[in-house]
Q: What sequence folds into this?
């Protein structure tokens, strides 16, 4: 037997359903049924998902590339203030490794928070003056102060947090959810990505495509990146002389040819091509409407701050995220670079906070007043924190900095089934090590999946003879943060 034909006969159950959902005929039928009110809920996805009733229907991940400094923003440590300028206590360090910019911590000194902390709201959460707008919504947030990871450099740490593996090639969380749960919207991608960076920063990070990649999953589950311009998707308009009906006929004919090849070879990338051609056609009408802010009130725009109408800014992307969420997009990943303050804690950190603080808080307020926060999980955080000790010269304040710190750091979540006004976990009195209720990256991933109605141990994909999952072979749901 022809080995290609033989391979097509050995189709796993999940791959069969995945291919079936990708075909043009099935997609068209689902669209017609939905239009006639005969079908409800998500399209495609795995038939056994969700495993149980989800608390969240969608995720907006406000990912802060570079490692926001937990000890300057959310993790208040009075002892750090007392020890400012004193040598790092080596009994806190042990055999920990840091980036090559620090190397050995001998001779380093402790650095107090640059701005004061205050307790906020009824919950009494400590939030720095760096973030006045976030401080104003503290009672809506669930802080985790005991996150820890294993990677000390940016790209592997980001990839580890988003995909469960430090090397490129594993599916990211958005791809897993898109694969498992399908989509509530058939005119926009189920996994959308936008990037931004503060103007004038000297510590911007590279946005690698594998941060929103599908890895070994079929590539139709990878994130679709919107460009940071007034034209977020290229080629939305038909060329001169090409009508919409003409393009529709071309796509139908191309799809028929691709369906024949799919039947012959069973290659899931052919199914991807069919699905993506169809999605591109639908986005010609959905994206212009998505990016038209003329229906937003001035009060709503004001929530996000003065940069909200400037494409490519974090504020603009936050409003786009809300518009995507209310249109049924399941996973929106915003990545904002510039948090790598090796020598700019007293300068560029102010810019980073100014650019992201009001839009982040505004997004929460906007979702809340629209009734969307209850089933939208919003996450704010980076790949690690920053060292409580100084990188630089204590006598040269304009160049104070902090190095990468994976051993204890903070993030916050809101909505989507997490407890509001909560602080979970704790670092030690200098913010160096986890003191109690540690949350490993895999625990965080397991909790994210749980909130979306997925048992992280049961959503797997067979690749190279092994069943893979987002959490690898680790991870426990952090039950204490669930509402």
A:
């Amino acid at each position: 037997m022809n080995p290609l034909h033989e391979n097509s006969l050995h189709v796993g159950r999940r791959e069969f359903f995945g291919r079936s959902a990708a075909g043009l005929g099935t997609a068209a039928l689902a669209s017609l049924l939905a239009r006639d009110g005969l079908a409800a809920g998500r399209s495609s996805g795995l038939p056994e998902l969700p495993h149980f009733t989800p608390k969240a229907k969608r995720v907006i991940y406000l990912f802060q590339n570079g490692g926001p400094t937990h000890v300057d923003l959310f993790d208040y440590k009075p002892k750090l203030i007392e020890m400012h300028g004193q040598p790092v206590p080596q009994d806190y360090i042990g055999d920990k490794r840091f980036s090559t910019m620090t190397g050995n911590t001998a001779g380093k000194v402790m650095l107090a928070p640059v701005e004061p902390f205050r307790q906020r709201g009824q919950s009494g959460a400590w939030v720095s003056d760096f973030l006045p707008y976030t401080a104003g919504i503290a009672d809506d947030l669930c802080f985790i102060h005991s996150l820890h990871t294993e990677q000390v450099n940016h790209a592997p740490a980001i990839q580890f947090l988003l995909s469960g593996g430090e090397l490129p090639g594993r599916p990211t969380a958005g791809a897993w959810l898109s694969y498992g749960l399908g989509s509530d919207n058939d005119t926009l991608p189920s996994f959308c990505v936008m990037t931004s960076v503060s103007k004038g920063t000297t510590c911007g990070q590279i946005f690698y495509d594998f941060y929103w990649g599908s890895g070994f999953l079929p590539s139709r589950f990878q994130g679709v990146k919107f460009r940071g311009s007034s034209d977020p998707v290229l080629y939305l308009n038909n060329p001169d002389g090409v009508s919409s009906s003409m393009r529709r006929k071309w796509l139908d004919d191309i799809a028929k040819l691709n369906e024949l090849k799919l039947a012959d070879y069973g290659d899931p990338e052919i199914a991807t091509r069919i699905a993506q051609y169809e999605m591109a056609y639908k986005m010609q009408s959905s994206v212009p409407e998505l990016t038209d802010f003329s229906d937003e009130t001035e009060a709503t725009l004001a929530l996000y701050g003065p940069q909200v109408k400037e494409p490519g800014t974090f504020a603009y992307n936050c409003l786009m995220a809300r518009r995507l969420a209310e249109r049924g997009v399941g996973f929106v990943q915003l990545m904002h670079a510039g948090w790598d303050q090796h020598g700019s804690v007293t300068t560029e950190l102010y810019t980073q906070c100014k650019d992201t603080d009001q839009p982040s808080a505004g997004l929460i307020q906007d979702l809340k007043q629209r009734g969307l926060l209850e089933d939208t999980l919003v996450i704010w955080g980076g790949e690690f924190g920053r060292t409580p000790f100084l990188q630089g010269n204590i006598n040269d304040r304009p160049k104070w900095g902090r190095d990468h710190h994976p051993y204890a750091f903070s993030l916050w979540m809101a909505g989507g089934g997490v407890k509001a006004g909560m602080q979970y976990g704790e670092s030690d009195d200098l913010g160096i090590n986890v003191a109690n209720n540690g949350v490993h990256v895999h625990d965080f991933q397991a909790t994210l999946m749980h909130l979306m109605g997925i048992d992280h141990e049961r959503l797997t994909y067979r690749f190279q003879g092994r069943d893979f999952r987002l959490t690898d072979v680790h991870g426990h749901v952090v039950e204490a943060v669930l509402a």
